[in-house]
Amino acid sequence: MTQVRVILCQVMAARTSAFVAEEVGEWAREIDRGISSASVYRALSDLVAAGLLAEIEAPSERRRYALVLLETNQGHLEPI
Is residue 79 within 8 Å of residue 73, measured between CB atoms? Predict the structure, then answer.
């Protein structure tokens, strides 16, 4: 995994609610100003395809994303 994707995963994992691509880019650029919007969109697409992110589509809103969570034996929800 590239350093850019590591940063993107870190900033997304720190969130407790759904987010839009632009927010991910803003959060990531606080860590590395060189992260491009294209890298963010490409990573989001790949993470959705891998089943690690859920894509939430609402008719009148921008596409939102949320981490796919796994329930543990202790009843806690954790990112996969």
Answer: no
Taking only the tens place, the pLDDT of each residue in 50-78 is 988 999 987 778 899 998 865 445 444 45
Q: pTM for the complete prediction?
A: 0.79
Domains of the chain: 3-79 (1.10.10.10)
What is the separation of C-alpha 36 from the centre of its chain, rounded to a whole number of angstroms?
Answer: 15
Conformational region of residue 55, where left means phi above 0, alpha means psi within -120 to 50, and beta covers everything else: beta
69 close to 18: Cβ distance less than 8 angstroms: no
Q: CA 73, CA 60: separation in Å to the nearest integer?
A: 38
